[in-house]
Write a structure and sequence with these properties.
With 110 residues, the chain is mainly beta. Helix content is 0%, strand content 51%. The protein is built from no helices and nine strands. Strands 1, 2, 4, 5, 8 and 9 form a six-stranded mixed sheet that branches. It has a three-stranded antiparallel sheet with strand order 3-7-6, with no helix packed on it. The chain starts with a strand and ends with a strand.
Length: 110
């Protein structure tokens, strides 16, 4: 089953990979991210990352923002990668996908 949202990203191999997301409810209000734990996966072209809040996902509750980064030295070599984000409700344990999609990294000029 596909995730409810698709997130496709483009970058070059010159950039440190960082993905910043503001999570909003359908009415435009901030999503209650403090009630959830998040996991992010990035795979392809030899990369295989599974990130959590302990190692790569920074959560800013007041702004309902997630910043996802496998590290300052991670640059994605040219190719197509697959990624996704899921959330687990802390109280109930229910796990749901937030998005999946592709990252296309191209050759940069440096």
């Amino acid at each position: 089953m596909a995730a409810p949202y698709e997130c496709n990203v483009s970058c070059t191999d010159d950039e440190t990979f960082v993905l910043t997301l503001e999570l909003l409810r359908s009415d435009g209000q901030p999503f209650e991210i403090a009630d959830y734990a998040f996991e992010y996966v990035l795979k392809g072209c030899g990369a295989n990352y599974l990130l959590t809040e302990a190692d790569g996902i920074a959560v800013d509750v007041p702004t309902a923002t997630l910043t996802i980064s496998p590290g300052v030295n991670v640059r994605l070599r040219p190719g197509v990668y697959y990624h996704g984000l899921r959330k687990e409700h802390i109280a109930s344990g229910q796990v749901d996908s937030v998005f999946d999609g592709q990252i296309t990294s191209t050759e940069g000029n440096f």
